[in-house]
Design brief:
Blueprint lengths: L19 E2 L9 E2 L1 H5 L1 H12 L9 E5 L3 H12 L2 E7 L7 E7 L5 E7 L8 E9 L3 H12 L3 E10 L3 H9 L2 E2 L7 H5 L2
Parallel strand pairs: 3-4, 3-7, 7-8, 8-9
Antiparallel strand pairs: 1-2, 4-6, 5-6
Helix pairs in contact: 2-3
Length: 190
């Protein structure tokens, strides 16, 4: 699909066809959604689908997870007319932070951090990332928000896999993703 074509019928998830498969090997994610972000209507429809379940919900701020969650998170924040908070990999913020260790989808041990002055007790935050594969990265972001007294208003990602960690998140938080039920098994079995 070219980056200008818009299908006549746009059902939820039509833009998933814009994503490109991994051609670089096992150290990379199996799909690359960045091409989706280049398509103006695809990006708009993706953000609209992610936010649809949260219409009418109290959301004070949107937080995106380093790095690709920044794109969707900032787009969601702009759509909702809310502020945007970057949850970063450790070592990138030059202000007071709180840190949380985690294991990412590849099993690598990492540390995530967030500035301490952006989240006040009771602040309702929508967490956004590109993908929830094992759930480790999102769970670390949830822990950071809650440790600072914030409330996770919801979790949104292009795909939330039905992994143990993905299920843990979906059982505890209001979630939104873009993968239609008929395609979910394909995304879970990559």
């Amino acid at each position: 699909m070219d980056l200008c074509h818009v299908p006549a019928t746009r059902e939820k998830g039509w833009y998933l066809a814009l994503m490109a498969p991994n051609v670089k090997g096992p150290n990379y994610a199996w799909l690359d959604p960045s091409r989706l972000y280049c398509h103006p209507q695809g990006l708009q429809d993706c953000v609209a689908d992610l936010l649809q379940p949260f219409q009418g919900d109290a959301i004070d701020m949107v937080a995106g997870i380093d790095a690709m969650g920044f794109i969707l998170g900032a787009a969601a924040a702009a759509t909702l007319q809310k502020g945007f908070l970057a949850i970063r990999k450790a070592g990138h913020l030059c202000v007071q932070t709180v840190a949380q260790p985690y294991s990412d989808y590849s099993g690598r041990e990492k540390v995530m951090e967030v500035r301490t002055d952006a989240i006040s007790p009771g602040l309702r935050i929508l967490l956004v990332d590109q993908w929830v594969e094992t759930g480790g990265t999102m769970r670390a972001a949830i822990e950071l928000v809650e440790r600072l007294g914030g409330v996770v208003a919801g979790v949104a990602a292009i795909c939330m896999e039905n992994s143990e960690g993905g299920k843990w998140i979906q059982e505890r938080y209001k979630c939104s993703h873009c993968v239609p039920p008929r395609l979910q098994p394909h995304f879970d079995q990559h």
